[in-house]
């Protein structure tokens, strides 16, 4: 495949005081990435040069100021240079407005590039929400930034790792607020986003499991009424619309079945209900070394007019700059972005925007 046929993937720096720059550079040291796409990093070129030098990584960092100037050659990493970090003031693992501003700027820039069709998909590195807010950008996270700058009203966070695929009714709100957001219309919306996302990812199993909110899915109203009054009616309506859906299923039962592939995807009612089982599957802690051996999992924002995938882990400030961060999740996020870009190029519509037929000729690339 020549460069003209490969999708251009814009990859953000993340917080410069985090593991974001490290995992981005490490991911692009994998030659398979260049076989499936044309990657370009977006952020401060000096930060990437510094991390490559610190870790003795054999790579050339090449600043550019236009996507048209990228060479997409393995061994030389193109960086859309924002030149907005004072390295003398940067401290690994520390929250700062400077780092937050740099991280935010890389996200805003990659959104602009995608909206202008200069790149085919976006991949985001981890940001620190406190640093972003210290810089004056009052967003709860990446998902909300993307929704705001693409003027998207209906969207959802889809987590993907092997057989477990989880989308959420709500994410970055308090648990008290999350319970109030469990409403029939929103649940229906998320079921459709998940269905379309599974198709875009080339999945054949479109069976969707919907989690209950309360213990034992409310147990006929004994432990809460939301399951009977909001979730069950949404599932009934989804079935009438032709979706293969089941629920509400008690969450402790749902996820044990989902991890085996019984469901193609599941709907979680709130952030931790979906994230905890997901991270138990994809995150591997080494108790002896006291560090993660592997951190796998991709976060895909469904419903946007552009493609956005992300690592599903945080900034890991405690190991930033030490050279031990795993690029596994970044590699998977790039792989997913490539898959979604191929679907978009065939249909003209990003994942989650509308229903489409599955293209069985699409390949699922494996970087491992």
TrEMBL record:
Fetch the InterPro entries from UniProt. PdxA_fam
Q: What class of enzyme is it?
A: oxidoreductase
Q: What is this protein called?
A: 4-hydroxythreonine-4-phosphate dehydrogenase PdxA
- Domain of life (superkingdom): Bacteria
Q: Which GO terms describe its molecular function?
A: 4-hydroxythreonine-4-phosphate dehydrogenase activity; metal ion binding; NAD binding
Family annotation (NCBIfam families): pdxA (TIGR00557)
Which UniProt keywords are given for this protein, alphabetically ordered?
Answer: Metal-binding, NAD, Oxidoreductase
Its EC number(s): 1.1.1.262
What's the gene? pdxA
Which species is this record about? Spirosoma profusum
């Amino acid at each position: 495949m020549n460069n003209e046929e490969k999708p251009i993937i814009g990859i953000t720096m993340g917080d410069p005081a985090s593991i974001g720059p490290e995992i981005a550079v490490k991911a692009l040291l994998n030659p398979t990435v260049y076989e499936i796409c044309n990657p370009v990093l977006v952020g401060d070129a000096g930060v990437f040069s510094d991390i490559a030098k610190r870790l003795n990584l054999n790579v050339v960092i090449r600043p550019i100021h236009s996507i048209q100037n990228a060479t997409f050659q393995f061994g030389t990493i193109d960086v859309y240079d924002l030149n907005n970090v004072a390295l003398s003031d940067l401290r690994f693992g520390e929250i700062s407005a400077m780092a937050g501003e740099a991280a935010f700027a890389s996200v805003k820039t990659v959104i602009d590039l995608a909206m202008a069709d200069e790149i085919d998909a976006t991949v985001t590195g981890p940001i620190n929400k406190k640093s972003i807010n210290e810089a004056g950008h009052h967003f709860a996270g990446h998902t909300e930034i993307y929704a705001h700058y693409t003027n998207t009203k209906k969207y959802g966070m889809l987590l993907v790792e092997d057989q477990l695929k989880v989308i959420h009714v709500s994410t970055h709100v308090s648990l008290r607020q999350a319970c109030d957001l469990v409403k029939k219309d929103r649940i229906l919306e998320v079921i459709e986003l998940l269905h379309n996302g599974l198709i875009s990812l080339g999945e054949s199993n479109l069976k969707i499991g919907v989690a209950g909110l309360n213990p034992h899915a409310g147990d006929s109203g004994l432990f809460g009424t939301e399951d009977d009054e909001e979730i069950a009616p949404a599932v009934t309506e989804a079935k009438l619309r032709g979706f293969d859906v089941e629920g509400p299923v008690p969450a402790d039962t749902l996820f044990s079945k989902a991890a085996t592939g019984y469901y193609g995807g599941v709907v979680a009612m709130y952030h931790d209900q979906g994230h905890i089982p997901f991270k138990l599957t994809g995150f591997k802690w080494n108790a002896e070394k006291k560090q993660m051996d592997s951190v796998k999992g991709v976060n895909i924002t469904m419903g946007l007019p552009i493609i956005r995938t992300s690592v599903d882990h945080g900034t890991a400030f405690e190991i930033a700059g030490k050279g031990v961060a795993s690029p596994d999740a970044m590699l998977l996020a790039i792989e997913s972005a490539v898959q979604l870009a191929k679907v978009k190029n065939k249909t003209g519509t990003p994942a989650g925007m509308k229903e489409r037929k599955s293209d069985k000729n699409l390949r699922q690339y494996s970087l491992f």
